[in-house]
Write a structure and sequence with these properties.
Order of helices and strands: HHHHHHHHH
Radius of gyration: 20 Å
Oligomer: single chain
Low-confidence stretches: none
Number of helices: 9
Length: about 210
């Protein structure tokens, strides 16, 4: 049925990205023919995502789309200037070479970080928010902890222009502390979530006539 069709579309696009036959199709087929098909497939996958998830999880589905938008921006600006993907690692050099403000290069570096590993990032963000919506705090914190580990080693939010993985102390990072910053941010967010949940539970337990959910 509809789910099988969407799964087939997702496999076609996913395998195309890994095996490289979509760029081949783009060279063989006219863009005016291929682009509407891919856009339709994208809309269908998004529609299926909302259709198959509980209504309460709609915010999580929307939130999970954000890394994909960053990837789209990276593709567009990367074609405009091949130096832009290096903005996460060397914003000063990119700003100097492209004659743009350093602040703009640093801001674009954030989009680069969000774009690298965007599929994993989307899955983790969506899962964490869905668990929060369901008040499954421990699972949400666990997902954020996993994100912290992945961010430290570049599986998501890689600072390298290629999006490759690394050890956070690797010389290839040119002394960048960004992997530590992102990992620490996820750990801090996990701690904040757990802390707020316990504060709320304590407040409800102290309130007369109320039970902890």
């Amino acid at each position: 049925g509809r789910a099988a069709y969407t799964l087939a579309c997702g496999l076609f696009v996913g395998l195309g990205g890994m095996l490289g036959y979509i760029p081949l199709l783009a060279r063989v087929l006219p863009l005016a023919c291929l682009a509407p098909i891919l856009v339709f497939v994208g809309f269908d996958i998004v529609s299926q995502a909302f259709h198959e998830t509980p209504p309460d999880h709609a915010p999580a589905v929307c939130f999970a789309i954000l890394p994909s938008i960053a990837q789209l921006l990276l593709i567009v600006l990367g074609k405009a200037n091949p130096l832009f993907p290096a903005a996460a690692l060397e914003p000063g050099r990119v700003a100097s070479a492209t004659q743009i403000p350093v602040a703009f290069a640093e801001n674009f570096g954030v989009f680069v970080l969000l774009a690298h590993g965007f599929i994993l990032t989307a899955m983790l963000w969506g899962a964490a928010l869905a668990f929060l919506i369901d008040r499954r705090i421990a699972r949400a914190a666990a997902v954020l902890g996993i994100a912290a580990v992945l961010a430290a080693f570049g599986l998501i939010h890689s600072v390298l222009p290629t999006g490759g993985i690394y050890l956070p102390w690797s010389p290839s990072l040119l002394g960048s502390r960004t992997p530590y910053h992102w990992a620490a941010a996820y750990v801090l967010l996990a701690g904040t979530v757990v802390g707020l949940a316990r504060t709320r539970a304590f407040a409800e337990s102290e309130a007369p006539g109320r039970k902890v959910a």
